[in-house]
Design brief:
Elements: E1 3-9, H1 11-26, E2 41-50, H2 52-62, E3 69-79, E4 84-90, H3 94-107, E5 111-114, E6 127-133, H4 135-145, E7 152-163, E8 168-174
Pfam families: 2_5_RNA_ligase2 (PF13563)
Protein name: 2'-5' RNA ligase superfamily protein
GO molecular function: ligase activity
Amino acid sequence: MPYAVVLYFNKPSEKFIRDIWSNLSENGIPSEIHHVGIRPHITLAIYDELTCQPCDSELSRFAPQTAHLHLDCTHLGVFTQPEKVLFLAPTPTRELIDFHAHIHSLLDHQTRGPWELYQPGQWVPHCTLALDLDQVKLDQAMSVCGNIELPVKLHATQIGVVEFLPVTEMVHFDLKEI
């Protein structure tokens, strides 16, 4: 099973995303994202294989030395391939891009089979709102989410690793509060 390295949010940011997930569901737009058991997040990397103990050690040392990330989500976006996915996108600041690249560098020797879309230079930072949508559901989801007042500030406070599917959280570590 593959592994994802993810950024988790503080409680208010997480609630904001969960409220969007609920609003979409209440408007007839089911999304697997809130049924698979993963918290709202931004995926930093996905690997086919990950050696857990060295990875855990690296992340446990990295997290308390690395400050929370304050993200300004300035737009909604859509991936169209291989499936339609609606997402909330943070502005890709130098801080976020460097954080992402550092994670890949840090875990390089503990992983195999990195997914190309999450590699530095390819990655589009995003928080998934709805996935596996047909065109009608995508149009409805865009209509529902069109009421989100942008920009939205999200506060990333933890880094974690999950195995999927089914989703199993392996570890998470708090980033340093400044």
